[in-house]
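From the methods appendix. Each design record in this collection lists the tokenized structure first, followed by the designed amino acid sequence. Records were kept in a plain field format so they could be parsed without special tools. The example shown here is representative of the layout used throughout.

RECORD:
FOLD TOKENS (334 positions):
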């Protein structure tokens, strides 16, 4: 993958006129000597639209304005026009204005056709938004039906994704999660597997409560690690409010079924208070063991879709940190 240059400047504000900006840069460069290094640096500048994916939301009013704007005379800031001065410049501007006026008059039929198409686009956009709302309602009902039909995960070996005798050292992404916790924090650890991460919380003297949905893991944690653990069903998913100010999960989210993740994040959105901080991690690849037999991954997570899903639920300050062990650590707030 090509390394991104630190000199690349992206302008994502749609109100900035890139053409005028480049003309201003060229005119200033013409008035002073420029070194070869500066020219190479300027040549790497890149201007991109407001969206990182290259998509700008449709604005009917702005589109109509741009269509009616037509041809406009140059501002003569470009060095190419520096010899056009005095009466010649005035005459040049008037000729362009006359041409723009005639072009507008001669293209009235084209204008009517454009507004007809624009009107249809607006109507179609309204219908599209209605269909989106209906689809989301249908999908929520479908997910709720999944909760009802799949209250348990079988067989249980699906949950055995970490050896009981695994060494106590943390992976890089787990260390990253731990570094964001302080002894004074109130923490809720969701699905801590067999409790390796809970041991690190105890060593760091961080007060926590743990929640698991697996009976075997609950019994093991309760007997060997801590009493601060609760066993819940998938109907509950989370304990009753109020919940701690920091909610974490060191488990790979991809090891959980998609319908569990759906209910988990929707429950977090409804049960937590404003300002609650969340830290989760996931990897779409089985990279935890040096073995040809890797744990099964029940879910694939799309980063962009996951971010959009969190935003729709009302979460903000979403930050994705890539760790060296192949995991993505997602942190966000309510």
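DESIGN:
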């Amino acid at each position: 993958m090509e390394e991104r240059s630190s000199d690349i400047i992206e302008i994502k504000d749609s109100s900035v006129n890139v053409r005028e900006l480049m003309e201003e840069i060229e005119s200033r460069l013409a008035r002073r000597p420029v070194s070869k290094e500066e020219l190479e640096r300027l040549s790497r500048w890149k201007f991109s639209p407001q969206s990182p994916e290259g998509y700008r939301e449709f604005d009917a009013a702005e589109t109509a304005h741009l269509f009616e704007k037509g041809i406009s005379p140059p501002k003569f800031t470009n060095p190419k026009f520096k010899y056009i001065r005095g009466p010649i410049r005035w005459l040049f501007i008037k000729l362009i204005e006359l041409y723009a006026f005639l072009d507008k008059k001669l293209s009235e039929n084209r204008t009517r056709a454009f507004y007809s198409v624009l009107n249809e686009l607006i109507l179609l956009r309204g219908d599209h938004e209605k269909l989106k709302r209906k689809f989301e309602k249908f999908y929520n009902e479908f997910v709720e039906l999944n909760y009802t039909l799949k209250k348990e995960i079988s067989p249980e070996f699906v949950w055995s994704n970490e050896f009981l005798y695994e060494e106590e050292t943390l992976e890089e992404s787990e260390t990253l999660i731990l570094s964001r916790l302080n002894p004074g924090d109130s923490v809720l650890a969701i699905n801590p597997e067999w409790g390796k991460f809970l041991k690190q919380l105890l060593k760091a003297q961080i007060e926590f409560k743990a929640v698991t949905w697996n009976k075997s893991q609950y019994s093991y944690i309760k007997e060997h690690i801590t009493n601060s653990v609760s066993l819940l069903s998938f109907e509950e998913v989370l304990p009753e409010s109020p919940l701690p100010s920091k909610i974490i999960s060191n488990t790979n989210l991809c090891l959980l079924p998609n319908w569990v993740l759906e209910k988990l994040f929707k429950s977090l959105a409804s049960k937590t208070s404003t300002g609650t901080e969340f830290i989760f991690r996931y990897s779409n690849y089985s990279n935890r063991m040096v073995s040809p037999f890797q744990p099964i991954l029940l879910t694939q997570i799309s980063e962009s879709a996951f971010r959009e899903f969190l935003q729709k639920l009302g979460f903000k300050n979403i930050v994705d940190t890539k760790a060296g062990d192949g995991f993505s650590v997602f942190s966000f707030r309510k």
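APPENDIX NOTE: DSSP finds ten helices and seven strands in the chain.
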